[in-house]
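Re: your question about Ribonuclease HIII

S., sorry for the slow reply, the queue was backed up all week. Below is exactly what I fed in.
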Amino acid sequence: MSYEVLVIPKKQLPELKKYYHSSLKGQPPQGAFFAAKTSACSITAYQSGKVLFQGKGASAEADKWKRTGVSTTKKTASSSSKRSGVDNHSSYPPNNVEQKIMLGSDETGTGDYFGPMTVVCVHLTEEQMKTIDRWGVRDSKTIKDETIRELAPKLVKECTYSLLILNNEKYNSLQEKGMNQGQMKALLHHQAIENVMAKCEEENLFYEGILIDQFVSPAGYYKYLASQKKAWTSEKPLYFATKAEGLHPSVAAASILARYSFLQEMDKLEKNLGVRIPKGAGPKVDEAAKKLLQKKGQETLYKVTKWHFSNTQRVLM
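Result:
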């Protein structure tokens, strides 16, 4: 999704609001003077004087106001020539992102037949970033589960975070209603980020933007949100990058907390079912699922697995 930001004198905000009076939306987001939606784009004007235009017609709509002499900040693909593939987009974080105070969001459990999807968003202060660096916090995929179980309780006490868990019974229900996994992840990230933003506002915590461990292109992410009648309305920049855990400690912390929650949920599952549950979606998982099917029946298997995975066909054969 393309966007453009104008910075205008605060005294001009009423003029803009009057211009878009027929397109005004209901309650504007926190800190906004007004929000409007035209056929071309969405407009959010903030008390600070920043005006955010989002959508295909963002540039054209913003051009209407440039003649007034306002300053502009157009999103460009800085340093894009140094990147390729899925990271070659204008929402890639700046080169000095590790020096910034950012919210970091990550998820796990998406490729596991058993176990839920867990999404975590984390805020760390500058001092907290130094602290967890001494602990050796990094991408959870590079840390053994035993170490994650040791690190996570310390992180919980140290950082501000939001954890969301989507169990498989709900996952299956959403999937059968037509939602794909990407849409589910986008909604979970969006909600977790909004939760932490609200906490930051309550606790007066500073941050400069948000970094998501990229699972879809930025345009795809915004499209997923729009499909569920959601939108990014904050004036804070939203960045996307693959392997973001290696770019910023907040994402690394989110990765560990998401994995820790997943492990805890798997522990509960094994205890409740009385069957050892392997992680992933390989042959050992099929074997465990067949045992569970024989022991508890198909209804139970449905509730604890991602039913549309190919494992189901193999197990029911």
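The longest helix spans residues 249-273. The first strand starts at residue 3 and ends at 7.

Happy to talk it through on Thursday.
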